[in-house]
C-alpha cells in the first residue's frame, strides 16, 4: 500500500450505499484518501454529494459498505461498537452545524461536563475548560448560558468543548453554515489554528466557500468520488492571529 508517512486517517476504496425500500443509493463510490495531522483538510462538494457520509465513516460514526478505514493506527473495521465508542471518546472531537449545547449549562459547564467521560482528572476539568474557552476567545463569557450567547459564540463554545480533551482528530460538519460572515471567518481561523498549534488532524466538510481561505488542503467530492485534491500553500497562514485577540 502506498501510504504517505504520517497519515492519521487512511481511507481505502470506501463505498457506502443507503437502502430505503426497494431503492439502493450509492453515495460513496470508491474513495481512497490519506489525511494528515497539522493541517486542516477541507472536503467540499455539492449538497448530497456524500460529504457528511464520508466524515462519519472517517470518524467511525458510520461503517462503510465496503473498503477500509484506519485511524491512528487502528483498523476501525476490527472494532466492535463498544470499542468504536471508546476510540471516538479517546481521540475524536466533533463540531456540528447546530452547536448541540445544553440550555441549562453555562459555557464553562458545557465544556467541562463531557470531560468526565474522558480520562481527565476531576480537579483539572475546570482548568481545562477555562483554557479551552480562552483559546476560542470566550474567557469572559464562561458563566453565560446559551440563551445569552450569539450564534458565533455558541459555535465557539462547541469548538472549546471539542478541543478541551485535546483530541488528535477533530471533525467538523458544516461548522459555519449557521453563522454570518464574521463569525464564519472566526470559526474557520480557529479550525486552522487548532490544526497547526495543537498538531491536530482537522477534517472539515462544508459547502461554504469561505472556508477555503483557511484550509491547507481542499478535496472536492462529486458523484461519490474525489474529483480534485489540492494542497494550498499560503505563507500567511502561519501568521494567523489568535481569535481571542481584539
Ligand atoms: N441514513 C441515511 N439513509 C438514507 N440515505 C441517506 C442517509 N444518509 C445520507 N443519505 C443520502 O446520501 C446522500 C449523501 O448525503 P450526505 O453525505 O449527507 O451529503 P452531503 O453532506 O454532501 O450533503 C444524500 O442523497 C442523502 O439523502
Ligand atoms: Mg452534509
Topology:
Layout: E1 9-20, E2 23-35, E3 39-44, H1 51-58, E4 66-71, E5 74-75, H2 81-91, E6 92-96, H3 107-112, H4 122-135, H5 151-163, E7 169-173, H6 181-197, E8 201-206, E9 217-222, E10 225-231
Parallel strand pairs: 3-8, 3-9, 6-7, 7-8
Antiparallel strand pairs: 1-2, 1-4, 4-5, 9-10
Helix pairs in contact: 4-5, 5-6
The structure holds adenosine-5'-diphosphate (ADP) and magnesium ion (MG).
Magnesium ion (MG) binds next to helix 1.
Can you give a write-up of this model?
The chain is of the alpha/beta class and 246 residues long. The protein has a single domain, classed as Rossmann fold (3-Layer(aba) Sandwich), CATH 3.40.50.300. Helix content is 28%, strand content 28%. It contains six helices and ten strands; from the N terminus they run βββαββαβαααβαβββ. The strands form two sheets. Strands 6-7-8-3-9-10 form a six-stranded mixed beta sheet, sandwiched between helices. Helix 5 packs parallel to helix 6. The termini are far apart. Bound molecules: adenosine-5'-diphosphate and magnesium ion. The site of magnesium ion (MG) has 4 residues, from helix 1.
Amino acid at each position: 500500500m502506498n501510504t504517505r508517512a504520517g497519515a492519521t486517517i487512511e481511507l481505502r476504496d470506501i463505498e457506502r450505499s443507503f437502502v430505503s425500500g426497494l431503492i439502493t443509493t450509492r453515495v460513496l463510490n470508491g474513495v481512497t484518501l490519506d489525511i494528515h495531522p497539522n493541517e486542516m483538510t477541507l472536503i467540499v462538494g455539492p449538497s448530497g454529494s456524500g460529504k457528511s457520509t464520508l466524515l462519519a465513516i472517517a470518524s467511525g460514526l458510520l461503517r462503510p459498505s465496503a473498503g477500509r478505514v484506519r485511524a491512528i493506527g487502528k483498523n476501525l473495521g476490527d472494532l466492535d461498537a463498544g470499542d468504536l465508542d471508546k476510540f471516538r471518546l479517546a481521540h475524536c472531537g466533533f463540531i456540528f452545524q447546530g452547536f448541540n449545547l445544553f440550555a441549562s449549562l453555562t459555557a464553562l459547564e458545557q465544556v467541562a461536563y463531557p470531560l468526565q467521560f474522558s480520562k481527565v482528572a476531576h480537579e483539572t476539568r475546570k482548568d481545562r475548560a477555562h483554557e479551552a474557552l480562552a483559546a476560542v476567545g470566550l474567557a469572559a463569557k464562561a458563566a453565560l448560558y446559551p440563551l445569552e450567547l450569539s450564534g458565533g459564540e455558541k459555535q465557539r463554545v462547541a469548538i472549546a468543548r471539542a478541543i478541551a480533551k485535546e483530541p488528535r482528530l477533530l471533525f467538523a460538519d458544516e461548522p459555519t453554515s449557521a453563522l454570518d460572515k464574521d463569525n464564519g471567518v472566526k470559526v474557520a481561523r480557529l479550525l486552522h489554528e487548532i490544526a497547526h498549534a495543537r498538531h491536530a488532524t482537522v477534517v472539515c466538510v462544508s459547502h461554504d466557500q469561505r472556508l477555503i481561505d483557511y484550509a491547507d488542503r481542499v478535496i472536492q467530492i462529486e458523484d461519490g468520488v474525489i474529483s480534485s485534491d489540492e494542497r494550498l500553500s499560503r505563507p500567511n497562514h502561519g501568521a494567523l492571529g489568535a481569535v481571542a485577540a481584539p
